[in-house]
Amino acid sequence: MKRIIGATAPPAKAGVKSVLVDEGSAGQRLDNFLLRELKGVPKTHVYRIIRSGEVRVNKGRAAADTRVEVGDVVRVPPVRLPERVEDPAARPAPAREFPILLEDDHLLAVDKPAGVAVHGGSGVSFGVIEQLRQARPQARFLELVHRLDRETSGVLLVAKRRSALTGLQEQFRGRETGKTYLALVNGAWPVQKKVIDLPLHKYLLGGDDASAGERRVKVVGKDDPDGMRSITLVKVARRLGAFTLLEVTIKTGRTHQIRVHLASQGHPIAGDDKYGDFELNKALQRQGLKRMFLHAWRLQFRHPATTEPVALEAPLPADLRQFAERHAQPTTV
Questions:
Q1: Residue 97: which H helix or E strand, with range?
Q2: Which of 20, 152, 160, 299 has its CA 20 to 30 A from that of 249?
Q3: Rounded CA separation 234/262 (Å)
Q4: 298 beta partners
Q5: DSSP string, 34-83
Q6: Could you say which DSSP state residue 19 is in?
Q7: Residue 285 pLDDT more than 50?
Q8: Are 21 and 68 in contact (CB under 8 A)?
Q9: What are the residues facing 17 on neighbouring strands?
Q10: How sure is the predictor about 329, in pLDDT bands with cuts at 50, 70 and 90?
Q11: 87 annotated active-site
């Protein structure tokens, strides 16, 4: 990572580094920024120092998914490598390619399967991005543009150039992209219920100790200072017996937004192990639904190089399609 020569940073105690973010690193997630800065440090340790607050951005605590910008000062604490740290190359992520929806010199769009994390960290050794890098050793640049939950399948964008990464992430932050998911929910979703505009708050189960809790999200009141405005658009696609297949478009990209918004309306996603109907989920597993029925179906954006509109679509995976067909009714909405 390049540093700006002559740049001043706040005084730091011995062993602490203050790194000034330059244009080459602007737009990166904080965790990815640190993984490049602290080469050889285990990912679990990087996430631990972020959660503990030892890493600061402009003197304030920051989450792993915080985007750093030009001019930000990142406080990097001293880290001591364990005495026995394996060379990362000794146990690389297994090389793997994924079904390609689009590829050119600027970007790669893949159809991510369910059960695969998009990147390593927080108990996961590797994800899509590490496997792609291992499968494409000649690639000079491969970075995730956005994220999908591990349990969610569907369209995932990877940038092959820094300019593409920053351009696409700017579109995501500016809500200029169109992201539509397919979700199967329990019960009959009211056709007239088309907009969910409810703030969400991210918290940790088991108290405030970030190292011990599990990340969860809940709906809060509109006057809650910790609430983040979250907007979800819902369209009934089809009635499937005791379920409803929905087309869900998110206008904001909050953590677990779709899952929490739908569950808050009394219609949790089938198979959701965090916010769903747990007894129903057990019954659905016996019927063949082994995971959450949420799929990133369509993604629309402007090409980062040509500005031409791009519309991608990932077909419903075989396991979800077969489950839906078994519950299909002859009429559609």
A1: none
A2: 160
A3: 9
A4: 180, 313
A5: HHHHTTTS-HHHHHHHHHTT-SEETTEE--TTPBP-TT-EEEE------S
A6: E
A7: yes
A8: yes
A9: 76
A10: low
A11: no
Strand partners, 285: none
The pair of three-digit structure tokens given for residue 209, joined into one six-digit string: 């100790």
**How far is the C-alpha of 123 from the C-alpha of 331, rounded, in Å?**
44
Which helix H or strand E contains 183, and what residues bound it?
A: strand 178-186
Return the closest-CA partner of residue 183 out of 324, 333, 332: 324
Nearest to 35 by CA among 83, 82, 74: 74
**What does the alpha-carbon distance between residue 183 and residue 287 come to, in Å, rounded to a whole number?**
17
Alpha-carbon Rg for the chain, nearest whole angstrom, is 21
Residue 263 corresponds to which tokens in the numbers above?
A: 């569950």
Q: Greatest CA separation found in the chain?
A: 71
Q: Using CA atoms, how far apart are residues 54 and 164, in angstroms rounded to an integer?
A: 31
CB count, 10 Å around CB of 30? 20
Q: Are 249 and 230 in contact (CB under 8 A)?
A: no
Residues 6+ apart with CB under 8 A from 109: 100, 101, 102, 103, 155, 156, 157, 158, 299, 312
DSSP secondary structure string for all residues of 104-164: -SSEEEEEEPTT--SS-BTTBS--HHHHHHHH-TT-S--EESS---TT-EEEEEEESSHHH
Give 327's DSSP letter: T
- Span 209-235, pLDDT tens digits: 444 467 899 999 999 999 999 999 999
Whole-angstrom distance, CA of residue 43 vs CA of residue 258: 28
Q: Which residue has the tokens 């519309």?
A: 311
User: Looking at 72, 111, 149, 223, which residue is catalytic?
Assistant: 149
Q: Whole-angstrom distance between the N-terminal and C-terminal Cα of the chain?
A: 53
**pTM attached to this predicted model:** 0.73
Q: Contact 106/161 with Cβ under 8 angstroms?
A: yes
- Given CA atoms 218, 199, 248, 310 in this order, what sign does their dihedral have? negative
